[in-house]
Write a structure and sequence with these properties.
The structure is a single chain. This protein is mostly helical. The chain is 78% helix and 0% strand. The longest helix is centred in the last third of the chain and has 19 residues.
Length: 72
């Protein structure tokens, strides 16, 4: 999934991200602006994860959102 796709769906996914990572603030999610890298940085910072773990969690989150929206 590319950055344009993420940004286009970000408003829909912000709530799911807040549910997934409750320690993220609304400001964090607004600043992420649909950027997987920025989101991973906030997850890493708030949860104290290693960079790789934060990126893996964000990638999995985005894959799950993409899979949920595909027609069957």
């Amino acid at each position: 999934m590319n950055t344009d796709q993420i940004q286009g769906k970000w408003l829909q996914w912000k709530g799911a991200a807040k549910t997934q990572w409750g320690k993220l603030t609304d400001d964090d999610l607004t600043q992420a602006e649909g950027s997987a890298d920025k989101l991973a940085g906030f997850v890493q910072e708030r949860y104290g994860y290693a960079k790789e773990r934060a990126r893996e969690e964000v990638d999995r989150f985005l894959q799950d959102r993409d899979r949920d929206e595909r027609p069957i």
